[in-house]
Amino acid sequence: MENKKKNYGWDFPPNIGGGISECFNNAGIESFKGKHWKSLARETIQNSIDARGKNAEGPVIVKFERIDIPSDKIPGKDELLEILKACRDYRKTPEKAKKAFERGIEVLSKPFVQMLKISDYNTTGLRGVFSDENSDWHNLVKSSGNSNKESGAGGSFGIGKNAPFACSLLRTVFYATKNEDGETAFQGVAQLASHDRGEGETRGTGFYRNKETYDPITDFSDIDEVFRREEIGTDVFVAGLIDAENWKDKIIKAVIENFFVALHEDQLVVYVDDTLINRELLLQLIDEYIKEDKDYMSDQYYDAICNGVPIEFNMDDFGEDGKVQLFIKEDRRFKRKVAMVRSTGMKITHLDRFRGGIFFAGVMIAKGKKLNEFLRQLEPPTHDRWEPSRYEKNERYAKRILDKLKRRVREEIMKLSKTDEAEVSTIEGMGDFLPDPTIESSPFEEIGNDEYLEKANEIPKEAKVKKDKKTEKDQLPKITVNGGGRRKENNSNNGKKRENYGTRTKRRSRNTDPGKDKSISSEAVSISRIRAFCVDPDKGTYQISIWPDSGGTGVVQVMVVGEDNKLFPEPLRKAISKETNQPLPITENSKIGPITFKKGKKETILATFKEPFRWALEVKVNEN
Prior knowledge:
alpha+beta, 9-stranded mixed β-sheet, 26 strands
Protein backbone atom coordinates (compact mmCIF):
# COMPACT_ATOMS: atom_id res chain seq x y z
CA MET A 1 0.00 0.00 0.00
CA GLU A 2 1.50 3.34 -1.04
CA ASN A 3 0.60 6.22 1.29
CA LYS A 4 -0.06 9.53 -0.54
CA LYS A 5 -0.99 11.73 2.44
CA LYS A 6 2.12 11.53 4.59
CA ASN A 7 5.80 11.09 3.88
CA TYR A 8 5.99 7.40 4.71
CA GLY A 9 8.47 5.24 2.86
CA TRP A 10 11.65 3.20 2.89
CA ASP A 11 14.61 5.03 4.36
CA PHE A 12 18.12 3.61 3.97
CA PRO A 13 20.50 6.04 5.76
CA PRO A 14 23.51 7.21 3.71
CA ASN A 15 26.90 5.63 4.31
CA ILE A 16 28.43 8.91 5.46
CA GLY A 17 32.17 9.47 5.24
CA GLY A 18 32.91 6.46 3.08
CA GLY A 19 32.22 3.96 5.82
CA ILE A 20 32.34 0.20 5.41
CA SER A 21 29.88 -1.16 2.86
CA GLU A 22 27.38 -3.59 4.35
CA CYS A 23 27.05 -6.89 2.53
CA PHE A 24 24.08 -9.23 2.10
CA ASN A 25 25.71 -11.93 4.27
CA ASN A 26 24.73 -10.47 7.62
CA ALA A 27 26.47 -12.50 10.36
CA GLY A 28 23.49 -12.24 12.68
CA ILE A 29 21.13 -13.68 10.07
CA GLU A 30 23.56 -16.28 8.77
CA SER A 31 23.89 -17.77 12.29
CA PHE A 32 20.27 -18.96 12.01
CA LYS A 33 20.46 -20.40 8.48
CA GLY A 34 19.70 -24.12 8.25
CA LYS A 35 17.73 -24.02 11.51
CA HIS A 36 15.58 -21.00 10.76
CA TRP A 37 12.20 -22.40 11.85
CA LYS A 38 13.57 -23.70 15.13
CA SER A 39 15.31 -20.38 15.75
CA LEU A 40 12.21 -18.39 14.82
CA ALA A 41 10.08 -20.33 17.30
CA ARG A 42 12.68 -20.06 20.07
CA GLU A 43 13.43 -16.38 19.68
CA THR A 44 9.91 -15.04 19.15
CA ILE A 45 8.28 -17.13 21.90
CA GLN A 46 11.10 -16.30 24.29
CA ASN A 47 10.60 -12.57 23.67
CA SER A 48 6.86 -12.95 24.28
CA ILE A 49 7.39 -14.82 27.57
CA ASP A 50 9.81 -12.09 28.67
CA ALA A 51 7.14 -9.45 27.90
CA ARG A 52 4.41 -11.04 30.03
CA GLY A 53 2.07 -8.39 31.40
CA LYS A 54 2.38 -7.76 35.14
CA ASN A 55 -1.39 -7.94 35.60
CA ALA A 56 -2.00 -10.61 32.97
CA GLU A 57 -4.26 -13.49 33.91
CA GLY A 58 -3.36 -16.86 32.44
CA PRO A 59 -0.42 -17.89 30.27
CA VAL A 60 1.28 -15.93 27.50
CA ILE A 61 -0.37 -16.80 24.18
CA VAL A 62 1.59 -16.86 20.92
CA LYS A 63 -0.04 -17.43 17.52
CA PHE A 64 1.70 -18.38 14.29
CA GLU A 65 -0.50 -17.82 11.24
CA ARG A 66 0.35 -17.95 7.56
CA ILE A 67 -1.45 -15.31 5.51
CA ASP A 68 -1.33 -14.58 1.79
CA ILE A 69 -1.84 -10.90 1.08
CA PRO A 70 -1.94 -8.96 -2.22
CA SER A 71 1.57 -7.69 -2.90
CA ASP A 72 0.16 -4.18 -3.40
CA LYS A 73 -0.68 -4.12 0.33
CA ILE A 74 2.97 -4.54 1.29
CA PRO A 75 3.94 -1.13 2.73
CA GLY A 76 6.16 0.71 0.24
CA LYS A 77 6.00 -2.21 -2.19
CA ASP A 78 7.04 -0.31 -5.35
CA GLU A 79 9.90 1.47 -3.59
CA LEU A 80 11.09 -1.78 -2.00
CA LEU A 81 11.09 -3.41 -5.43
CA GLU A 82 13.31 -0.64 -6.78
CA ILE A 83 15.66 -1.01 -3.81
CA LEU A 84 15.98 -4.76 -4.40
CA LYS A 85 16.92 -4.05 -8.02
CA ALA A 86 19.46 -1.43 -6.92
CA CYS A 87 21.02 -3.95 -4.54
CA ARG A 88 21.18 -6.56 -7.29
CA ASP A 89 22.79 -4.16 -9.79
CA TYR A 90 25.23 -2.46 -7.43
CA ARG A 91 28.84 -2.90 -8.52
CA LYS A 92 29.92 -4.19 -5.10
CA THR A 93 27.29 -6.92 -4.91
CA PRO A 94 28.78 -10.45 -5.30
CA GLU A 95 27.20 -13.01 -7.61
CA LYS A 96 25.63 -15.12 -4.86
CA ALA A 97 23.93 -12.06 -3.39
CA LYS A 98 22.69 -11.01 -6.83
CA LYS A 99 20.81 -14.31 -7.09
CA ALA A 100 19.25 -13.76 -3.66
CA PHE A 101 18.04 -10.30 -4.66
CA GLU A 102 16.69 -11.73 -7.91
CA ARG A 103 14.60 -14.21 -5.90
CA GLY A 104 13.29 -11.34 -3.78
CA ILE A 105 12.33 -9.36 -6.88
CA GLU A 106 10.49 -12.41 -8.22
CA VAL A 107 8.56 -12.85 -4.93
CA LEU A 108 7.53 -9.20 -4.69
CA SER A 109 6.49 -9.11 -8.37
CA LYS A 110 3.83 -11.79 -7.88
CA PRO A 111 0.17 -10.90 -7.19
CA PHE A 112 0.31 -12.35 -3.66
CA VAL A 113 3.04 -12.56 -1.03
CA GLN A 114 3.13 -15.28 1.62
CA MET A 115 3.64 -13.90 5.11
CA LEU A 116 3.90 -15.40 8.57
CA LYS A 117 2.12 -13.39 11.24
CA ILE A 118 3.32 -13.99 14.82
CA SER A 119 1.13 -12.43 17.51
CA ASP A 120 1.38 -12.47 21.30
CA TYR A 121 -1.22 -11.82 24.00
CA ASN A 122 -1.13 -11.29 27.76
CA THR A 123 2.04 -9.29 27.16
CA THR A 124 3.05 -5.66 27.71
CA GLY A 125 3.56 -4.79 24.06
CA LEU A 126 6.79 -3.02 23.10
CA ARG A 127 7.36 -0.22 25.57
CA GLY A 128 9.10 3.08 24.87
CA VAL A 129 7.92 3.78 21.31
CA PHE A 130 9.18 7.37 21.48
CA SER A 131 12.29 6.71 23.55
CA ASP A 132 15.56 7.48 21.85
CA GLU A 133 17.36 4.47 23.27
CA ASN A 134 17.27 1.43 25.57
CA SER A 135 13.54 0.77 25.29
CA ASP A 136 11.84 -2.42 24.11
CA TRP A 137 10.84 -0.76 20.83
CA HIS A 138 14.26 0.75 20.19
CA ASN A 139 16.16 -2.44 21.01
CA LEU A 140 14.01 -4.64 18.79
CA VAL A 141 13.47 -2.35 15.79
CA LYS A 142 16.26 0.22 15.71
CA SER A 143 19.40 -1.13 17.40
CA SER A 144 21.80 -4.05 17.25
CA GLY A 145 22.79 -6.10 20.27
CA ASN A 146 21.33 -3.89 23.00
CA SER A 147 19.71 -5.35 26.11
CA ASN A 148 17.60 -4.03 28.94
CA LYS A 149 15.94 -7.26 30.06
CA GLU A 150 15.67 -8.39 33.65
CA SER A 151 17.34 -11.40 35.24
CA GLY A 152 14.57 -13.87 34.53
CA ALA A 153 14.42 -12.90 30.88
CA GLY A 154 15.43 -15.35 28.21
CA GLY A 155 16.98 -13.08 25.60
CA SER A 156 17.97 -9.50 25.05
CA PHE A 157 16.73 -8.35 21.63
CA GLY A 158 20.31 -8.91 20.46
CA ILE A 159 21.33 -11.12 17.56
CA GLY A 160 18.28 -13.31 18.26
CA LYS A 161 15.99 -10.72 16.72
CA ASN A 162 17.56 -11.63 13.35
CA ALA A 163 15.84 -15.03 13.35
CA PRO A 164 12.70 -13.76 11.50
CA PHE A 165 14.89 -12.30 8.73
CA ALA A 166 16.43 -15.75 8.14
CA CYS A 167 12.91 -16.97 7.23
CA SER A 168 12.24 -14.16 4.71
CA LEU A 169 13.09 -14.25 1.01
CA LEU A 170 12.74 -10.46 1.08
CA ARG A 171 14.86 -10.11 4.24
CA THR A 172 12.03 -7.86 5.41
CA VAL A 173 10.02 -7.88 8.64
CA PHE A 174 7.22 -5.57 9.85
CA TYR A 175 6.38 -4.85 13.50
CA ALA A 176 3.13 -3.57 14.98
CA THR A 177 2.57 -3.01 18.69
CA LYS A 178 0.12 -1.59 21.19
CA ASN A 179 1.60 -1.29 24.67
CA GLU A 180 0.23 -0.95 28.18
CA ASP A 181 0.84 2.81 28.08
CA GLY A 182 -1.58 3.14 25.14
CA GLU A 183 1.17 3.81 22.56
CA THR A 184 0.81 2.29 19.09
CA ALA A 185 3.54 1.90 16.48
CA PHE A 186 4.18 0.26 13.12
CA GLN A 187 7.48 0.02 11.29
CA GLY A 188 9.22 -2.14 8.69
CA VAL A 189 12.85 -3.23 8.69
CA ALA A 190 14.70 -4.55 5.62
CA GLN A 191 18.17 -6.03 6.10
CA LEU A 192 19.55 -5.99 2.56
CA ALA A 193 22.91 -4.51 1.50
CA SER A 194 24.56 -1.22 0.67
CA HIS A 195 23.41 0.18 -2.67
CA ASP A 196 23.24 3.41 -4.65
CA ARG A 197 20.06 4.85 -6.20
CA GLY A 198 21.79 7.97 -7.51
CA GLU A 199 22.36 9.76 -4.20
CA GLY A 200 25.45 7.92 -3.00
CA GLU A 201 26.02 4.65 -1.19
CA THR A 202 23.59 3.74 1.59
CA ARG A 203 23.75 1.53 4.64
CA GLY A 204 22.50 -2.04 4.29
CA THR A 205 19.56 -1.79 6.72
CA GLY A 206 16.54 0.37 5.93
CA PHE A 207 13.28 1.28 7.68
CA TYR A 208 9.73 1.84 6.52
CA ARG A 209 8.75 4.87 8.62
CA ASN A 210 8.09 8.60 8.58
CA LYS A 211 10.94 9.83 6.39
CA GLU A 212 10.80 13.36 7.81
CA THR A 213 10.81 12.61 11.54
CA TYR A 214 12.34 9.09 11.40
CA ASP A 215 9.57 8.01 13.79
CA PRO A 216 7.41 4.89 13.40
CA ILE A 217 3.89 5.20 12.05
CA THR A 218 1.63 5.77 15.05
CA ASP A 219 -1.69 6.38 13.30
CA PHE A 220 -2.95 2.93 12.35
CA SER A 221 -5.52 4.42 9.98
CA ASP A 222 -2.54 5.15 7.69
CA ILE A 223 -1.75 1.45 7.23
CA ASP A 224 -3.73 -1.45 5.83
CA GLU A 225 -6.02 -3.12 8.35
CA VAL A 226 -4.10 -6.42 8.11
CA PHE A 227 -1.20 -4.71 9.95
CA ARG A 228 -3.26 -2.97 12.64
CA ARG A 229 -2.81 -4.19 16.20
CA GLU A 230 -6.04 -3.81 18.18
CA GLU A 231 -5.16 -5.51 21.50
CA ILE A 232 -2.19 -4.94 23.80
CA GLY A 233 0.73 -6.98 22.51
CA THR A 234 2.94 -7.26 19.44
CA ASP A 235 2.61 -8.60 15.88
CA VAL A 236 5.62 -9.63 13.79
CA PHE A 237 5.12 -10.08 10.03
CA VAL A 238 7.74 -12.11 8.13
CA ALA A 239 7.44 -11.21 4.43
CA GLY A 240 8.09 -13.74 1.64
CA LEU A 241 8.41 -17.05 3.46
CA ILE A 242 11.27 -19.47 2.84
CA ASP A 243 10.06 -23.09 2.58
CA ALA A 244 6.46 -21.94 2.99
CA GLU A 245 4.96 -25.40 2.39
CA ASN A 246 6.69 -27.19 5.28
CA TRP A 247 6.76 -24.54 7.98
CA LYS A 248 3.88 -25.76 10.15
CA ASP A 249 5.22 -29.16 11.31
CA LYS A 250 8.67 -27.66 11.87
CA ILE A 251 7.27 -24.90 14.09
CA ILE A 252 5.14 -27.37 16.08
CA LYS A 253 8.13 -29.64 16.70
CA ALA A 254 10.34 -26.70 17.66
CA VAL A 255 7.73 -25.39 20.11
CA ILE A 256 7.35 -28.76 21.83
CA GLU A 257 11.06 -29.59 21.88
CA ASN A 258 12.14 -26.24 23.31
CA PHE A 259 9.20 -25.12 25.48
CA PHE A 260 7.82 -28.33 27.01
CA VAL A 261 8.57 -26.93 30.49
CA ALA A 262 6.81 -23.60 29.85
CA LEU A 263 3.83 -25.46 28.35
CA HIS A 264 3.70 -27.91 31.27
CA GLU A 265 3.87 -25.10 33.83
CA ASP A 266 1.04 -23.18 32.08
CA GLN A 267 3.37 -20.29 31.33
CA LEU A 268 2.64 -20.65 27.62
CA VAL A 269 -0.04 -21.55 25.07
CA VAL A 270 0.79 -21.66 21.35
CA TYR A 271 -1.37 -21.79 18.23
CA VAL A 272 0.24 -22.89 14.96
CA ASP A 273 -2.50 -22.12 12.44
CA ASP A 274 -5.33 -24.31 13.71
CA THR A 275 -3.19 -26.53 15.99
CA LEU A 276 -3.42 -25.70 19.70
CA ILE A 277 -0.43 -26.57 21.92
CA ASN A 278 -1.05 -26.38 25.66
CA ARG A 279 -0.57 -28.46 28.79
CA GLU A 280 -3.70 -30.55 28.24
CA LEU A 281 -2.75 -31.51 24.67
CA LEU A 282 1.02 -31.70 25.11
CA LEU A 283 1.29 -35.45 25.66
CA GLN A 284 -0.96 -36.16 22.67
CA LEU A 285 1.09 -33.86 20.43
CA ILE A 286 4.36 -35.42 21.62
CA ASP A 287 3.03 -38.81 20.54
CA GLU A 288 1.98 -37.39 17.18
CA TYR A 289 5.01 -35.23 16.29
CA ILE A 290 7.99 -36.21 18.47
CA LYS A 291 7.98 -39.82 19.61
CA GLU A 292 8.98 -41.43 16.31
CA ASP A 293 11.52 -38.75 15.38
CA LYS A 294 14.95 -39.71 16.71
CA ASP A 295 16.22 -36.14 16.33
CA TYR A 296 14.03 -35.02 19.24
CA MET A 297 14.16 -35.80 22.95
CA SER A 298 11.18 -33.96 24.47
CA ASP A 299 9.16 -37.18 24.77
CA GLN A 300 11.77 -38.57 27.19
CA TYR A 301 12.20 -35.26 29.01
CA TYR A 302 8.47 -34.81 29.46
CA ASP A 303 8.14 -38.36 30.79
CA ALA A 304 10.76 -37.43 33.40
CA ILE A 305 8.76 -34.37 34.48
CA CYS A 306 5.46 -36.26 34.71
CA ASN A 307 6.64 -39.62 36.07
CA GLY A 308 10.19 -39.20 37.30
CA VAL A 309 11.74 -38.75 40.73
CA PRO A 310 11.48 -35.06 41.80
CA ILE A 311 14.57 -33.62 43.51
CA GLU A 312 15.24 -30.13 44.85
CA PHE A 313 18.53 -28.59 45.90
CA ASN A 314 20.03 -25.15 46.34
CA MET A 315 23.16 -23.60 44.84
CA ASP A 316 24.52 -22.02 48.00
CA ASP A 317 26.57 -19.43 46.09
CA PHE A 318 23.31 -17.59 45.36
CA GLY A 319 21.73 -17.90 48.81
CA GLU A 320 17.98 -18.38 48.72
CA ASP A 321 17.98 -17.42 45.02
CA GLY A 322 19.83 -20.58 43.96
CA LYS A 323 16.91 -23.03 43.91
CA VAL A 324 17.09 -25.90 41.39
CA GLN A 325 14.49 -28.52 40.48
CA LEU A 326 15.53 -31.86 39.00
CA PHE A 327 13.39 -34.68 37.59
CA ILE A 328 14.90 -38.08 36.76
CA LYS A 329 13.08 -40.99 35.07
CA GLU A 330 14.78 -44.36 34.66
CA ASP A 331 13.98 -46.32 31.50
CA ARG A 332 16.07 -48.70 29.39
CA ARG A 333 14.93 -46.87 26.24
CA PHE A 334 16.28 -43.51 27.37
CA LYS A 335 19.50 -41.85 26.22
CA ARG A 336 21.12 -40.62 29.45
CA LYS A 337 20.58 -36.90 28.86
CA VAL A 338 19.41 -34.10 31.14
CA ALA A 339 17.67 -31.06 29.64
CA MET A 340 19.00 -27.84 31.19
CA VAL A 341 16.25 -25.22 31.48
CA ARG A 342 16.00 -21.75 33.00
CA SER A 343 12.95 -20.18 34.64
CA THR A 344 11.63 -18.97 31.27
CA GLY A 345 10.70 -22.59 30.56
CA MET A 346 12.87 -22.82 27.42
CA LYS A 347 15.46 -25.61 27.11
CA ILE A 348 18.92 -24.09 26.73
CA THR A 349 21.14 -27.15 26.38
CA HIS A 350 21.56 -30.67 27.74
CA LEU A 351 23.99 -32.53 29.96
CA ASP A 352 25.24 -35.89 28.69
CA ARG A 353 28.35 -38.12 28.68
CA PHE A 354 26.97 -40.32 31.44
CA ARG A 355 28.87 -43.54 30.80
CA GLY A 356 27.50 -46.66 32.43
CA GLY A 357 25.04 -46.68 35.30
CA ILE A 358 21.30 -46.50 34.70
CA PHE A 359 19.53 -45.47 31.51
CA PHE A 360 17.47 -42.37 32.19
CA ALA A 361 16.19 -38.98 31.05
CA GLY A 362 16.21 -35.89 33.21
CA VAL A 363 15.17 -32.24 33.35
CA MET A 364 16.95 -29.59 35.42
CA ILE A 365 15.12 -26.28 35.95
CA ALA A 366 16.99 -23.31 37.44
CA LYS A 367 14.36 -21.55 39.55
CA GLY A 368 16.38 -19.10 41.67
CA LYS A 369 16.38 -15.49 40.45
CA LYS A 370 20.11 -14.85 40.97
CA LEU A 371 21.01 -18.25 39.51
CA ASN A 372 18.97 -17.40 36.40
CA GLU A 373 20.66 -14.03 36.04
CA PHE A 374 24.06 -15.73 36.26
CA LEU A 375 23.21 -18.41 33.69
CA ARG A 376 21.68 -15.87 31.29
CA GLN A 377 25.00 -14.02 31.18
CA LEU A 378 26.74 -17.21 30.01
CA GLU A 379 24.52 -17.67 26.95
CA PRO A 380 25.53 -16.79 23.38
CA PRO A 381 23.02 -15.00 21.11
CA THR A 382 21.56 -18.36 20.04
CA HIS A 383 20.78 -19.25 23.70
CA ASP A 384 21.77 -22.89 23.19
CA ARG A 385 24.63 -23.39 25.66
CA TRP A 386 26.40 -21.87 28.68
CA GLU A 387 29.91 -20.50 28.15
CA PRO A 388 31.91 -19.30 31.20
CA SER A 389 34.07 -17.13 28.93
CA ARG A 390 31.06 -14.83 28.43
CA TYR A 391 30.95 -13.92 32.12
CA GLU A 392 32.90 -10.67 31.98
CA LYS A 393 33.23 -10.23 35.74
CA ASN A 394 35.24 -13.41 36.39
CA GLU A 395 35.52 -16.29 33.94
CA ARG A 396 37.15 -18.64 36.48
CA TYR A 397 34.32 -18.00 38.95
CA ALA A 398 31.74 -18.71 36.22
CA LYS A 399 33.43 -21.98 35.29
CA ARG A 400 33.58 -23.05 38.94
CA ILE A 401 29.87 -22.36 39.49
CA LEU A 402 28.82 -24.04 36.23
CA ASP A 403 30.95 -27.10 36.97
CA LYS A 404 29.50 -27.22 40.47
CA LEU A 405 25.95 -27.19 39.09
CA LYS A 406 26.70 -29.96 36.62
CA ARG A 407 28.50 -32.00 39.27
CA ARG A 408 25.52 -31.73 41.62
CA VAL A 409 23.19 -33.01 38.89
CA ARG A 410 25.54 -35.94 38.26
CA GLU A 411 25.73 -36.69 41.97
CA GLU A 412 21.94 -36.89 42.25
CA ILE A 413 21.83 -39.32 39.34
CA MET A 414 24.67 -41.30 40.89
CA LYS A 415 22.55 -41.77 44.01
CA LEU A 416 19.79 -43.30 41.91
CA SER A 417 22.34 -45.46 40.12
CA LYS A 418 23.66 -46.80 43.44
CA THR A 419 20.13 -47.56 44.58
CA ASP A 420 19.57 -49.46 41.37
CA GLU A 421 22.85 -51.34 41.71
CA ALA A 422 21.99 -52.42 45.27
CA GLU A 423 19.29 -54.67 43.84
CA VAL A 424 21.73 -56.51 41.55
CA SER A 425 23.39 -59.75 42.71
CA THR A 426 27.16 -59.81 42.97
CA ILE A 427 28.98 -62.40 40.87
CA GLU A 428 32.24 -63.56 42.42
CA GLY A 429 35.28 -62.42 40.46
CA MET A 430 33.33 -60.02 38.23
CA GLY A 431 34.99 -57.02 39.90
CA ASP A 432 38.22 -57.78 38.06
CA PHE A 433 36.53 -56.95 34.79
CA LEU A 434 34.51 -53.84 35.77
CA PRO A 435 35.58 -50.22 36.29
CA ASP A 436 36.17 -49.00 39.83
CA PRO A 437 33.58 -46.24 40.54
CA THR A 438 36.00 -44.48 42.91
CA ILE A 439 38.46 -43.76 40.12
CA GLU A 440 38.65 -40.86 37.65
CA SER A 441 36.39 -41.95 34.89
CA SER A 442 33.46 -43.03 37.01
CA PRO A 443 30.34 -42.20 34.96
CA PHE A 444 29.15 -39.54 37.39
CA GLU A 445 32.22 -38.28 39.19
CA GLU A 446 34.28 -35.16 38.56
CA ILE A 447 37.36 -34.94 40.80
CA GLY A 448 40.32 -32.64 41.06
CA ASN A 449 43.66 -32.75 39.32
CA ASP A 450 45.62 -34.00 42.32
CA GLU A 451 43.29 -36.95 42.72
CA TYR A 452 43.73 -37.83 39.04
CA LEU A 453 47.48 -38.03 39.51
CA GLU A 454 47.12 -40.00 42.74
CA LYS A 455 44.92 -42.58 41.04
CA ALA A 456 47.31 -42.68 38.11
CA ASN A 457 49.97 -44.28 40.31
CA GLU A 458 47.79 -47.34 40.77
CA ILE A 459 49.27 -49.45 37.98
CA PRO A 460 46.96 -52.23 36.78
CA LYS A 461 48.19 -55.73 36.15
CA GLU A 462 49.18 -56.71 32.64
CA ALA A 463 46.50 -58.38 30.60
CA LYS A 464 47.13 -62.04 29.97
CA VAL A 465 47.20 -63.30 26.39
CA LYS A 466 45.01 -66.34 26.03
CA LYS A 467 45.76 -69.12 23.55
CA ASP A 468 43.25 -70.46 21.12
CA LYS A 469 43.17 -74.21 21.64
CA LYS A 470 42.54 -74.89 17.96
CA THR A 471 45.18 -72.65 16.41
CA GLU A 472 47.51 -72.01 19.36
CA LYS A 473 47.84 -68.47 17.92
CA ASP A 474 48.12 -65.51 20.25
CA GLN A 475 44.81 -63.63 20.38
CA LEU A 476 44.98 -59.85 20.47
CA PRO A 477 44.02 -58.68 23.98
CA LYS A 478 41.95 -55.57 24.51
CA ILE A 479 42.72 -53.69 27.72
CA THR A 480 39.96 -51.41 28.87
CA VAL A 481 41.19 -48.66 31.16
CA ASN A 482 38.76 -46.55 33.16
CA GLY A 483 40.90 -43.84 34.73
CA GLY A 484 43.12 -45.78 37.12
CA GLY A 485 40.86 -48.83 37.15
CA ARG A 486 40.55 -51.38 34.39
CA ARG A 487 38.37 -53.79 32.57
CA LYS A 488 39.86 -56.58 30.48
CA GLU A 489 38.32 -58.46 27.62
CA ASN A 490 39.72 -60.89 25.11
CA ASN A 491 38.55 -60.94 21.54
CA SER A 492 36.93 -64.09 20.28
CA ASN A 493 38.15 -65.88 17.16
CA ASN A 494 35.68 -64.12 14.91
CA GLY A 495 37.01 -60.73 15.93
CA LYS A 496 33.73 -59.36 17.28
CA LYS A 497 34.00 -56.73 19.99
CA ARG A 498 32.19 -57.00 23.27
CA GLU A 499 30.33 -53.94 24.48
CA ASN A 500 31.93 -51.74 27.13
CA TYR A 501 31.50 -48.19 28.36
CA GLY A 502 34.85 -47.30 29.91
CA THR A 503 37.97 -45.75 28.42
CA ARG A 504 39.20 -48.38 26.00
CA THR A 505 42.72 -49.00 24.77
CA LYS A 506 43.95 -51.56 22.28
CA ARG A 507 47.23 -52.93 21.13
CA ARG A 508 48.15 -54.56 17.89
CA SER A 509 50.91 -57.14 17.83
CA ARG A 510 52.76 -59.09 15.21
CA ASN A 511 50.38 -61.22 13.19
CA THR A 512 51.70 -64.01 10.98
CA ASP A 513 48.34 -65.39 9.97
CA PRO A 514 47.61 -64.22 6.39
CA GLY A 515 43.92 -64.73 7.03
CA LYS A 516 43.91 -62.04 9.70
CA ASP A 517 44.46 -58.26 9.51
CA LYS A 518 46.74 -57.70 6.51
CA SER A 519 47.38 -54.06 7.44
CA ILE A 520 49.78 -55.20 10.17
CA SER A 521 53.04 -56.56 8.84
CA SER A 522 55.47 -58.83 10.64
CA GLU A 523 57.67 -55.78 11.32
CA ALA A 524 55.03 -53.93 13.34
CA VAL A 525 55.94 -53.02 16.90
CA SER A 526 54.44 -55.37 19.50
CA ILE A 527 52.67 -53.65 22.38
CA SER A 528 51.96 -55.38 25.69
CA ARG A 529 49.91 -52.67 27.34
CA ILE A 530 48.43 -49.20 26.79
CA ARG A 531 47.01 -46.97 29.48
CA ALA A 532 45.22 -43.60 29.18
CA PHE A 533 43.80 -41.24 31.78
CA CYS A 534 42.92 -37.55 32.14
CA VAL A 535 45.49 -35.36 33.92
CA ASP A 536 43.95 -31.91 33.28
CA PRO A 537 40.21 -31.87 32.55
CA ASP A 538 40.18 -28.06 32.22
CA LYS A 539 42.58 -28.24 29.27
CA GLY A 540 41.48 -31.62 27.93
CA THR A 541 44.92 -33.18 28.46
CA TYR A 542 45.34 -36.96 28.70
CA GLN A 543 48.39 -39.05 29.54
CA ILE A 544 48.87 -42.06 27.28
CA SER A 545 51.42 -44.64 28.47
CA ILE A 546 52.56 -47.37 26.09
CA TRP A 547 54.62 -50.45 27.07
CA PRO A 548 56.26 -52.10 23.99
CA ASP A 549 57.62 -55.66 24.22
CA SER A 550 59.54 -55.24 20.98
CA GLY A 551 61.22 -52.42 19.14
CA GLY A 552 59.83 -50.74 16.04
CA THR A 553 58.02 -47.72 14.65
CA GLY A 554 54.31 -47.06 14.95
CA VAL A 555 51.59 -44.42 14.81
CA VAL A 556 49.35 -43.87 17.82
CA GLN A 557 45.66 -43.59 16.87
CA VAL A 558 43.44 -41.82 19.44
CA MET A 559 39.68 -42.26 19.08
CA VAL A 560 36.79 -40.99 21.21
CA VAL A 561 34.02 -43.35 22.29
CA GLY A 562 30.63 -41.74 21.71
CA GLU A 563 27.38 -42.19 23.63
CA ASP A 564 26.34 -45.00 21.29
CA ASN A 565 29.77 -46.68 21.63
CA LYS A 566 30.77 -45.59 18.13
CA LEU A 567 34.31 -44.34 17.63
CA PHE A 568 35.25 -41.02 16.07
CA PRO A 569 38.46 -38.94 15.84
CA GLU A 570 38.31 -35.78 17.94
CA PRO A 571 40.81 -33.08 16.83
CA LEU A 572 43.97 -32.80 18.92
CA ARG A 573 45.57 -29.46 19.73
CA LYS A 574 49.02 -30.84 20.58
CA ALA A 575 50.94 -33.95 21.62
CA ILE A 576 54.17 -33.94 23.65
CA SER A 577 56.57 -36.71 24.58
CA LYS A 578 56.79 -36.71 28.36
CA GLU A 579 60.25 -38.28 28.26
CA THR A 580 61.83 -35.64 25.95
CA ASN A 581 59.33 -32.77 26.40
CA GLN A 582 59.36 -32.42 22.62
CA PRO A 583 56.25 -31.97 20.45
CA LEU A 584 55.12 -34.95 18.41
CA PRO A 585 53.61 -34.67 14.92
CA ILE A 586 49.82 -34.91 14.61
CA THR A 587 48.31 -36.06 11.32
CA GLU A 588 44.71 -36.39 10.17
CA ASN A 589 42.17 -38.34 12.22
CA SER A 590 44.03 -37.68 15.50
CA LYS A 591 47.06 -39.81 14.69
CA ILE A 592 50.28 -39.11 16.61
CA GLY A 593 53.68 -40.00 15.22
CA PRO A 594 55.44 -41.88 13.80
CA ILE A 595 57.12 -42.82 17.10
CA THR A 596 60.13 -45.09 17.51
CA PHE A 597 59.62 -47.59 20.34
CA LYS A 598 62.37 -49.44 22.17
CA LYS A 599 61.81 -52.86 23.66
CA GLY A 600 60.83 -52.69 27.33
CA LYS A 601 60.97 -48.86 27.49
CA LYS A 602 57.70 -47.13 28.31
CA GLU A 603 56.70 -44.23 26.07
CA THR A 604 54.46 -41.54 27.59
CA ILE A 605 52.50 -38.99 25.55
CA LEU A 606 50.61 -35.93 26.83
CA ALA A 607 47.80 -35.38 24.30
CA THR A 608 45.60 -32.28 24.48
CA PHE A 609 42.29 -32.06 22.62
CA LYS A 610 41.06 -28.84 21.03
CA GLU A 611 37.83 -29.14 23.05
CA PRO A 612 38.36 -29.71 26.82
CA PHE A 613 35.70 -32.36 27.38
CA ARG A 614 35.85 -35.54 29.45
CA TRP A 615 36.31 -38.20 26.80
CA ALA A 616 36.23 -41.99 26.86
CA LEU A 617 39.18 -43.01 24.67
CA GLU A 618 40.25 -45.93 22.53
CA VAL A 619 43.97 -45.89 21.79
CA LYS A 620 45.84 -48.26 19.50
CA VAL A 621 49.27 -48.40 17.88
CA ASN A 622 49.35 -49.09 14.14
CA GLU A 623 52.18 -49.83 11.78
CA ASN A 624 53.80 -46.69 10.41
